[in-house]
């Protein structure tokens, strides 16, 4: 069985991922910065928990050393991805995150060689805002091959934003959106 660490497990999406993992028969190890929230969640889900601040690379390495993969759910990722990715490279642990922050995509692309040398995968953007929209875009391209422009938008279901999404939005409000013309 794969050993999966979910960092930022007590956040909205981290909690959903933890529930889904258990539904699929995986007992994840949960981690994050807030020891109290992590402890409560570990008790609720009956899982192993390891609190860790991201400015403690030795502790992070000790958590990831036995892991096959970390699912990183603690944003804003522009600040949190680097220490987790660096630990993944040192410990040869695969990395996934749920970000939609283009700066993180660019940064992880610049670490490709290090990840390749470590024999690991770095996969940002495994969350809602990237995967479904890319799948929809590919589907629409197949359905309308003559189209030369695509604009996608989606609306929430009234639940508002998660705390992490709201923090990221505020952090990037001055940057506007990213369009294909920007790439």
Q: What secondary-structure arrangement, pairings included, does this model have?
A:
Blueprint: E1 4-7, H1 12-23, E2 29-32, H2 35-45, E3 49-51, H3 57-64, E4 69-72, H4 77-91, E5 94-97, H5 102-110, H6 112-118, E6 122-123, H7 131-143, H8 163-172
Parallel strand pairs: 1-2, 1-4, 2-3, 4-5, 5-6
What does this structure look like?
The longest helix has 15 residues, at 77-91. A six-stranded parallel beta sheet has the order 3-2-1-4-5-6, sandwiched between helices. It is an alpha/beta fold and 183 residues long. It is 46% helix and 11% strand. Mean pLDDT is 87; it is low at 179-183. It contains eight helices and six strands; from the N terminus they run βαβαβαβαβααβαα. The protein has one domain (1-176): Rossmann fold (3-Layer(aba) Sandwich), CATH 3.40.50. It is globular and about 50 Å long.
**In one word, what is the shape?**
globular
Strand numbers in spatial order across the main sheet: 3-2-1-4-5-6
What count of structural domains?
1
Largest sheet: 6 strands, parallel
Helix content class: 40-55%
CATH class: Alpha Beta
């Amino acid at each position: 069985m794969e050993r999966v660490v979910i960092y930022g497990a007590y956040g909205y999406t981290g909690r959903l991922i933890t529930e889904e993992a258990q539904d699929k028969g995986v007992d994840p190890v949960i981690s994050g910065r807030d020891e109290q929230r992590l402890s409560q969640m570990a008790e609720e889900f009956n899982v192993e928990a390891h609190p860790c601040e991201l400015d403690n690379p030795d502790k992070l390495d000790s958590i990831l050393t036995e892991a096959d993969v970390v699912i990183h759910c603690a944003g804003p990722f522009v600040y949190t991805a680097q220490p987790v990715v660096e630990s993944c490279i040192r410990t040869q642990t695969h990395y996934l995150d749920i970000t939609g922050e283009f700066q993180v995509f660019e940064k992880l692309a610049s670490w490709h060689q290090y990840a390749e040398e470590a024999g690991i995968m770095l996969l940002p953007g495994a969350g809602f805002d990237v995967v479904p929209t890319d799948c929809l875009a590919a589907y629409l391209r197949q359905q309308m091959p003559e189209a030369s422009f695509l604009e996608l938008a989606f609306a929430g279901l009234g639940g508002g934003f998660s705390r992490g999404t709201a923090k990221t939005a505020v952090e990037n409000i001055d940057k506007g959106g990213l369009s294909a013309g920007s790439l």
